[in-house]
C-alpha cells in the first residue's frame, strides 16, 4: 500500500471511531431502555405479596421494569428508601404507600423526586396532594363504614370495642377507624385504638393486654393486615372466641385460614393486586405523556378507588351487604390470579 492510500485508510478509520464514540443510544420509549419504576411499601407483611404479583404482571404487559422495596414500618425507613431512589437517575416513576402523611421528611422526599422530574403517585395509603400526582387504592373511609355496618349487625345490642393498628396517624388507619365508628353507630363504643408500630410481636401483646384489662369488651377490630392473625391467635389461646366478635381488614394467608375455620366473623378485603397493576399502568402513561391514558384510570381528580369486599365464612348468616362474598368464592378468585393473600 502506497503512503497516500495508507493515510486515506487511516483517516476513514478515525472518522468511524469518532462517529461511534459520540453516537447516542436509542431513547427510552423508542425501542431503547425500558422505564424503571419503584414501589415503596409502608411495612413488610404478606399483604404486599399480592402487590408483587400485580407489579410483575403489569411490568410484562407495559414493558417496564418494576422493583418492590418493602419498608420496615417506620417513618425513618421510608425516608431512607425514598432517598435511595432519589439517587438512582434511571428511575422514572415511584409508587408510595405513605406511612405517615404528616411526616415532613417523607413528604419532602416525595416533593424532591417530583422536582427532579420523577412521577410520584400514592398507592394504598395516601399523602398530601402536593406530594403526589394521583392516588390509587381503597376509599378507606367508605371501607371502614362498611365494616362498621357489618359490626353493627354482629353486635345489635352494642358494646365496647377495641381496635388494633400499626400506626394510628397513617391516613388509611385514621380513615378506617373513623369510617368504622360512623358505620357501627352509637351503640358500639370504640374505647381504645392500640398502636403496635408495625411490630407483629407487639401486636400480639396488645391483644393479650386488651383481653386481660377489658374483660367486658365485646368485639376486637384489626385495622392493618397482620392485626387479624394476631387477634385470632390470642383469642384462641385465651379460649374466648365464643364471647367475642372479630372483624378485621385484609386477608393474609393466616387470615384466610381463620375465615375457613370460622375464627373470624368478617374481614374487609382490599385489592392490592389491582392497586399495583393500575399504578404501573398510570406511571407508564405519565412517562409516555399520555394524559388520556392517565385520566382513563384516575379520572380528572386523580383518584382511583379500587373497591372493597366483605368476606365471611361460608356458613355465616348474620352479615348482609352488597359487598358480601363468601370465603369459598373469594378463595377461588385468589387461586385464579395465583394469589395467596389480598
Please, could you describe this protein's structure?
This protein has 342 residues and is α/β, with parallel strands linked by helices. The chain has 2 domains: 36-138 and 272-305, Rossmann fold (3-Layer(aba) Sandwich), CATH 3.40.50; 140-269 and 308-337, Response regulator (Rossmann fold), CATH 3.40.50.2300. It is 46% helix and 19% strand. The chain has helices spanning 3-22, 47-62, 75-86, 104-115, 140-154, 171-184, 200-213, 227-238, 253-260, 272-287, 291-298, 327-337, and strands spanning 36-40, 65-69, 91-96, 119-123, 135-137, 159-165, 188-195, 217-222, 245-249, 266-269, 303-305, 309-312, 324-326. The chain has a 7-stranded mixed sheet with strand order 7-6-8-9-10-12-13, sandwiched between helices. Helix 2 (47-62) runs parallel beside helix 10 (272-287) and helix 3 (75-86) runs parallel beside helix 4 (104-115). It is globular and about 60 Å long. It starts with a helix and ends in a 5-residue tail after the last helix.
SS strand fraction: 15-25%
Q: What's the SSE pattern?
A: HEHEHEHEEHEHEHEHEHEHHEEEH
Number of self-contained structural domains: 2
* CATH domain class name of the largest domain: Alpha Beta
Q: What is the 3D shape? A: globular
Which percent range fits the helix content?
40-55%
The profile of the biggest β sheet is: 7 strands, mixed
Amino- and carboxy-terminal Cα gap: 75 Å
Mind telling me the CATH superfamily name of the largest domain?
A: Response regulator
The low-pLDDT segments are 1-31
Report strand order across the widest sheet.
Answer: 7-6-8-9-10-12-13
Structural class from helices and strands? alpha/beta
How many alpha or pi helices? 12
Give the name of the CATH architecture of the largest domain. 3-Layer(aba) Sandwich
Number of strands: 13
Amino acid at each position: 500500500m502506497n503512503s497516500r492510500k495508507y493515510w486515506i485508510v487511516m483517516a476513514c478509520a478515525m472518522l468511524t471511531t469518532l462517529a461511534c464514540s459520540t453516537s447516542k443510544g436509542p431513547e427510552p420509549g423508542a425501542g431503547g431502555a425500558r422505564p424503571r419504576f419503584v414501589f415503596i411499601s409502608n411495612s413488610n407483611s404478606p399483604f404486599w405479596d399480592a402487590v408483587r404479583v400485580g407489579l410483575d404482571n403489569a411490568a410484562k404487559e407495559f414493558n417496564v421494569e418494576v422493583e418492590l422495596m418493602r419498608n420496615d414500618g417506620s417513618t425513618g425507613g421510608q425516608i431512607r428508601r425514598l432517598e435511595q431512589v432519589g439517587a438512582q437517575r434511571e428511575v422514572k416513576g415511584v409508587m408510595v404507600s405513605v406511612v405517615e402523611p404528616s411526616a415532613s421528611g417523607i413528604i419532602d422526599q416525595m416533593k424532591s423526586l417530583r422536582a427532579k422530574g420523577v412521577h410520584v403517585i400514592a398507592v394504598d395509603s395516601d399523602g398530601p396532594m402536593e406530594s403526589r400526582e394521583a392516588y390509587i387504592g381503597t376509599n378507606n373511609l367508605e371501607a371502614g363504614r362498611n365494616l362498621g355496618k357489618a359490626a353493627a349487625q354482629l353486635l345489635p345490642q352494642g358494646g365496647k370495642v377495641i381496635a388494633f393498628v400499626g400506626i394510628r396517624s397513617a391516613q388509611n388507619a385514621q380513615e378506617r377507624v373513623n369510617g368504622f365508628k360512623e358505620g357501627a353507630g352509637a351503640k358500639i363504643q370504640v374505647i381504645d385504638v392500640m398502636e403496635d408500630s408495625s411490630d407483629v410481636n407487639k401486636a400480639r401483646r396488645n391483644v393479650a393486654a386488651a383481653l386481660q384489662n377489658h374483660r367486658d369488651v365485646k368485639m376486637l377490630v384489626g385495622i392493618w393486615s397482620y392485626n387479624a392473625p394476631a387477634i385470632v391467635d390470642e383469642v384462641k389461646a385465651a379460649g374466648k372466641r365464643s364471647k367475642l366478635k372479630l372483624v378485621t381488614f385484609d386477608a393474609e394467608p393466616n387470615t384466610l385460614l381463620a375465615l375457613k375455620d370460622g375464627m373470624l366473623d368478617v374481614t374487609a378485603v382490599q385489592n392490592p393486586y389491582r392497586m399495583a397493576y393500575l399504578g404501573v399502568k398510570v406511571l407508564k402513561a405519565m412517562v409516555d405523556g399520555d394524559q388520556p391514558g392517565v385520566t382513563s384510570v384516575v379520572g380528572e381528580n386523580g383518584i382511583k378507588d379500587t373497591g372493597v369486599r366483605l368476606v365471611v365464612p361460608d356458613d355465616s348468616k348474620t352479615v348482609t351487604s352488597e359487598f358480601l362474598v363468601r370465603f369459598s368464592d373469594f378463595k377461588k378468585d385468589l387461586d385464579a390470579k395465583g394469589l395467596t393473600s389480598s
